[in-house]
């Protein structure tokens, strides 16, 4: 699956009046253009949605305000504990993306060592090149564990009773912003990983060489960095086409299964609401025309795809069934309306990392849209 797949990589709240509700903030991208202090990041949109969740008839109007300003969504006192914990993780996210983007691999040294197995200098050179790279891969893997813990903390805060998912997104804007930032990072990480075969090649060479060293009783400096148990877990992680998405999907599924006293709708409605908000912003010319920076569009697209995938893994019948609260045809159309090169990775994420796409309950139209 690793080499065979190309690519990179809701409900309304009740207010009782038609006055705009407080903002459910979605954040600026991590990879924002340098020096860009206003522009799309200072964008606010308020719009009315009469039926965000398909299949739910609403007799009143819902208002959602979306803010893209970096100065918005400061945590309230009740949010601060979770916010601060997640913020520590997110501060390292941009550095992780930069390290992954600059990852070049040790392909040349490995080829030389394999072609000249009797040349000890070439063997040492290849090993010396691979060991620090495996240190980077270890850092990426450990960050995925930190990100998983951060996501579970946010899910706990955004789905707790007695508030509805939309009320949570309105009340806890700072946490909603962090949730979206995690999804944006995740899709970006997986896009970069999927287009870099050096990652798996380097790690495979490292494991083969380490195994050979053990058989020959040769001390290996890299083994202290990544022992056999950790190497096994890292191997499973990097074998996934989209390892970060897989980590978050598993974490969301585990969160739901461990919190049986919490209605599953608390989680799925939170996800479907965010998907609907992103879709409406992207498909409505009035709102889309206010995006003067394409990175804002990319951010919304990644968040939309991320929440769809999580929803599909958590909901019993998934995101593609007729009873789904996500308008999948609308979401796919939004993706297809973008320049093809910019969204192929996101379409591949829907094709290959969702759980229910090939179920009998998925319409032929949706399947054909993703072919």
From TrEMBL:
- So where does this one cross the membrane? none
Q: Would the keyword Oxidoreductase turn up in this protein's UniProt record?
A: no
Q: Which UniProt keywords apply?
A: Lipoprotein, Membrane
Q: Where is the composition biased (Low complexity)?
A: 19-29
Region called Disordered, residue ranges: 1-37
Compositionally skewed regions (Gly residues) per UniProt: 1-15
State whether keyword Lipoprotein applies: yes
- Where is the protein localized? Membrane
Q: How does it sit in the membrane?
A: Lipid-anchor
Q: Where is the CYRIA/CYRIB Rac1 binding domain?
A: 71-367
Give the top-rank taxon of the lineage listed in the UniProt record for this protein.
Eukaryota
Q: Which family does it belong to?
A: Belongs to the CYRI family.
What is said about its interaction partners and assembly? Answer: Interacts with RAC1 (GTP-bound form preferentially).
Q: Which PANTHER family match?
A: GH09096P
Task: Please identify the protein, giving its name as recorded.
Answer: CYFIP related Rac1 interactor B
Q: Which organism is it from?
A: Felis catus (Cat)
